[in-house]
Amino acid sequence: MDDFDAIADGDDADNERNAWNACYERPAVLAMVGDVRGLRVLDAGCGGGLHAAALIERGAAVTGIDASAAMLRIARRRLHGRAELVQADLRRPLPLDDGTFDIVLASLVLHHLRDGGPLAEFHRVLRPHGRLVFSTHHPFMDQTLGSGENSFDTYPLTERWRRGDDVATMRFWHRPLHAMFDALHSAGFRVVQLREPQPHDRTRFEHPREYELLRTRPRFLFFDAVREADAAPIGAGAARDVTVRPARSEDAVRMADILNTVIELGGRTSHTTRFDAARIEAEFIAAPRGVSCFVALVDGGIAGFQAVEWSDPAWRGEDPLPEDWAFISTYVAPEHHRRGLARAMFERSVRAARAAGVRCIDATIREGNDEALAYYGSVGFTEYRRRPGAVSTRFVLRA
Fold first, then answer.
1. pTM higher than 0.85
2. I need a labelling partner for 13 at 20 to 30 A (CA). Which of 139, 362, 368, 393 fits?
3. Which CATH number is 242-396's, of 3.10.129.10, 1.25.40.420, 3.40.50.620, 3.40.630.30?
4. What pLDDT score was predicted for residue 239?
């Protein structure tokens, strides 16, 4: 590993104000991370805590890890106990529980490591459909630093960093773009966004020479990748013969039976009046603001359904949602509970919502419906609002 302990104070001071970090990388990667209010974020390779401080100010619960004890001392001074900080080596298994985080942020870290080992650990500690956001060397930048190596190979580069009177030799690993994508895919991630950003406008005035350089010569790449649901098990005891498909008009009678049974059991839905097939068709299968409606079949019979619908901009009732949000409803026949049907349907619902441009999915659950709260929590929803009788949770699809 690189010896950041030797240059910790000088490197942190430099990062706080230089063109490459303060005016280019940090604004770009934080913009990609987006809204983090109420989310749990792992800052992997947190250094002196500059990114962590920004995330905390935006409402995130942050855990920072770094191999450098000196960098962590700086982070503790900066963050004043507002984040959990752990010394950990990204080349080894992380001392963190499975499915803990909504987002992993890895700022200018992965090009210091020879292989993509941390990606599997990032996948493990993320919740289903959690996001990995990271910045890394642009292959073009490595070519300018190298000595004519083949750009399609993976190879090391070294650079001497001077920070005040302290000097350290840093080693980076050049990776071609296809190798980056292959590593992410193998670890169970799907890239949803790749950026080559322009420098922040303030760079033009604070660092005019670097501004002209960054405007025409890309230095870093920025990735936003999603932890694929199918890389995780559907759930213990899940039925092996579950099929998920879009709902059809001919499914409406059976869907009404399922929902009416849920209504009769009480405490699991806000609906209080019975449904017939026509109402199921109008409110779920062919809803005017519908995003998707899927049914889960077991042994060929419908055992549950799940619908996602855009929020209503004309809604004048309690707790209106932003217009780029949607809300979700899930109903499973009681005899098929705990068999993974809802989780299987959610994989399809997430794909449809993402394709439609939904930013967040809301699941508002009756207070006391612990089974629903546990299910939505297990697939990545987090609480963002609570009022008498109801708990509102959300699943973030994009910033």
1. no
2. 139
3. 3.40.630.30
4. 44
